[in-house]
Design goal:
With 184 residues, the chain is of the alpha+beta class. The chain has one domain: Nucleic acid-binding proteins (OB fold (Dihydrolipoamide Acetyltransferase, E2P)), CATH 2.40.50.140. It is 18% helix and 36% strand. It is built from 2 helices and 9 strands; from the N terminus they run βββαββββββα. A 5-stranded mixed beta barrel has the order 2-3-5-9-8.
């Protein structure tokens, strides 16, 4: 497809779902991809932009085109899928660029906006539209620590004992003796 058919987009703010934005997803030996799902309350404008590009590009085949979004039947929210093989540019909530150690780890639940290009594609008779990710605005990052809540104490339950250096050394000596005894 010609690059001229791309349309620039910026999403509304939403919650990141399964984000791979700080480093690429390389699971199962696949080509590295930066990607995220973005859950938004009102995605009508971006949905319509995707449909309009599909109609302009594919004509009557547009109704069979794959789209980069799904509706959550339980909440009514829209889940957009954006991805790229290139690292996106990052911006803070004020719109200023950030880089390096300024970029926080972005985990699921982080409030972000994404931007890039809506691009049509045609592969082996299948047509569709994708959201090519080029930039991310970090509004409220969520770290891997979650909400920080632990558990309340329970009377009479298991309490982990502190292990001293001396106990660790004794365990290592016993493990070594056991290994050498098993060889004969």
């Amino acid at each position: 497809m010609a690059q001229a058919n791309r349309v620039k987009f910026t999403s509304t703010k939403g919650r990141a779902q399964y984000p791979w934005l700080n480093k690429p997803d390389t699971a199962f030996g696949a080509e590295p991809k930066y990607k995220t799902n973005l859950i938004v309350e009102d995605g009508a404008a971006l949905e319509q932009a995707c449909r309009d590009l599909a109609a302009a590009e594919f004509g009557p085949k547009a109704d069979k085109a794959r789209m980069p979004f799904d509706a959550d039947p339980d909440t009514g929210e829209t889940i957009f899928k954006a991805k790229s093989k290139y690292a996106p540019s990052f911006f803070d909530a004020t719109g200023n660029p950030i880089s390096g150690k300024q970029i926080p780890s972005i985990w699921g639940g982080s409030v972000i906006r994404v931007g890039g290009f809506i691009s049509p594609y045609s592969v082996s008779g299948s047509v569709g539209v994708s959201l090519q990710l080029t930039r991310v605005q970090v509004i409220e990052p969520v770290s891997s620590g979650g909400d920080g809540d632990g558990f309340e104490a329970v009377e009479g339950g298991f309490i982990a004992a502190e292990v001293t250096e001396e106990q660790l050394n004794e365990e290592q000596v016993l493990a070594t003796e056991t290994e050498s005894a098993d060889r004969f």
